[in-house]
Amino acid sequence: MQFTRGLLIDLSPLKISPAFARLWVGSALAGIGGQLTVVTVMLHVFELTDSTFAVSMIAVAGLIPMILAGLYGGMLADAFDRRRLALLAATVAFVATALLAALTWMHLENIWWLYGLSMIIAATNSVGVATRTAIVPRLIPLEHLTAASALNGVAFGMTVMVGPAVAGMLVALTGFGWTYTIDIILMLSLFLGLWTLPALRPEGTIVRPGLASLVDGWHFLRRAGNIRMQYLMDITAMTFGQPLTLFPALGTVLLGGGAFTTGILTAAVAVGTVASSLFSGRLVHYRWHGLGISRAVQAYGLTIALFGAVLVIGLFLPPASERTPHIALIVAACVALALSGAADNISSIYRNTMMQAAVPDTMRGRLQGIFVIVVAGGPRVGALYAGALATVTSLWFPPLLGGFLVIGIAAMLARLSPRFRTYDALSPEA
């Protein structure tokens, strides 16, 4: 396997695979629209309830549907044409988002509609992301998978950076309806990227969806110690180090600036994600992916603890408001969050590459389904942790405590798994 030695991002996957390039562009644009809706639903619920706990429950409500959809969707991806499955998932998400927009324009929305449609969108996104990720190794040669993961980091970072910032401005200037409508328009690009793919039935022995398929995947995961360990690392980081659900309250109560601050804080994470991907040439050269994941997760915990420390300073300043925000504190918080985005993205590049290189194609859908549950489910559990703990303590306490928990738990996990620490990308083993 050859790795790019330059400092800047390796664009070769876009050049050697037009199908990957179209899917990458479509996923990026649709992802921006999806982030518009994620942030807008948070602000919508906060406006209706004035409760950070209610905002955190958006994520919790979608957890079980997302888990079930990820498990079953992964089995479907290992049994049927992955192109058709991805198109079906995108269609259901499109219809749910359109209904959300229609209810808002007609002033018929309420908290239960917001929760219910968010659950549907979360479930279908779980299936769609798992299926599209399982497709990538069929479009890209093995030696370019790390570069493709870095490119996906750019796409993800742009979605999280552009989407929340635009959502905050649109909600503040025009209301909720326009934001949901723009998401519908952007989702059309994903259909183009998927529609132009060839048929992609899984390779190897096919096990029909059901208990036998689930058991087969479970037996493989029991043998795949490196894959299990990266799951545990990510769950730790996202459970104790995910402050997203606090952002609406921070913009209203502690930092000031309202919806604009909510969007800026969310976008700051993506700035770090994009920057670390754009300068990922050396990262894709590093072959010890297990050790890289461990160090990146510990760095992530440190930056989240730093974010909590910045919020503590706000307790000693005059009260902020939407018209009189604490600009210096917002800037400091954004720096800490940008660093957290960079650390998380480095971990993500290595985790994605390990998943795609070490897992055989016949298992990739099921393992990607579990992977998506871990990646998306961890932040939802983290939302409950942060929202509940902030309700009984203060807004600064969950990130400060959580950051140190992430550092300690990740260090302990790495110490207990020498095989994971010595994982070599030149000889990928699950």
Automatic annotation (TrEMBL):
Pfam families given for it?
Answer: MFS_3
What range(s) does the Major facilitator superfamily (MFS) profile domain occupy?
Answer: 1-426
Q: Carries keyword DNA repair?
A: no
Q: Where in the cell is it found?
A: Cell inner membrane
Q: Which InterPro entries match?
A: MFS_dom, MFS_trans_sf, TM_effector
Which key words are in the record? Answer: Cell membrane, Membrane, Transmembrane, Transmembrane helix, Transport
Entry's CDD domains? MFS_MefA_like (cd06173)
Q: How does it sit in the membrane?
A: Multi-pass membrane protein
Q: What is its main location?
A: membrane
Membrane spanning residue stretches: 21-46, 52-73, 85-106, 112-135, 147-172, 178-200, 231-251, 257-279, 299-320, 326-346, 367-390, 396-414
Q: What is this protein called?
A: MFS transporter
Output the lineage of the source organism: Bacteria, Bacillati, Actinomycetota, Actinomycetes, Micrococcales
